[in-house]
Description:
This protein has 310 residues and is of the alpha/beta class.
Amino acid sequence: MREAVCALGVFDGVHLGHRKIISRAKKHAEKIRGKCVIVSFDRHPQAVVGRKAPEILTSSPRKAYLLSKSGADKLIFLPFNRRFASQTPENFVRKYLAGKLRLRRIVVGTDFKFGRNRRGNVNLLKKLGKKYGFEVEAVPTLKSGRRKINSTLIRKTIRMGDVSRAAELLGRFHSVAGRVVKGKGLGAKIGFPTANLGKTAELLPGPGVYAVLVKSGRRVYRGAANVGINTETKHPLAEVFIFGFNRNIYGESAEIHFIRKIRAEKKFSGVKELSHQIRLDVARVKKYFTIRQKCDIVSAREFVKTDCRR
């Protein structure tokens, strides 16, 4: 491999701050006519060493797709397990970064940590760079107003249901993917059959009703999604009424992109009240898409081409 510049990080969410790091690496690679390499991990480190697995913004396949669209020459996912996590910071640099990659420069965020117990930081990485022959650039954290753009902030925003704000921080709509499973069939009985998404790897927004885009196969549909707690499994569940859709997709994969929150979660006295509210929700979502389609909703064809393919 020619001399390379490496963008290094966990990159959960591949948000605007991550894109800034990758953009800097690409520019340096162009200057030296070398390769731009993105190095990340096959799972979130906290899922291995943390007390509780984090609520991730992007599954490994989704993250790989988003990073592959960044324009880098090569994407490397290192296998993150307990043995990998136990190595010293210097061993990580010597074994994985300074050997085969022939790195000229490594670009990271200012808060990047590495090695056993996260003992390595940017200052140590710079010292090791002098020893092993590469430069280090720490990219300042991107801000939105006074808030630093990071995965923690985006997770909090999504949990609150503010998916419009999350989209601004991500530079794209937040999405979740999973298999369509059978529900109780109540929606079909009252005229609004739903596709129920099974447990997802990605973080679901907080409870409420959302305007969404749904990718099924190679097509994208508009729809209204309700996110709530499944009373049987106690897990969050997304139920989607897809406009103009009448195909049986049980067992198939689907991807939901959350565009805007329409209302908060409500309790109903009975089926009649629920049916009336769903009609209001669907009408409101359809009106939203009609008003906004020329502003911030891309065409279905362009949407599939730019943001949905795995």
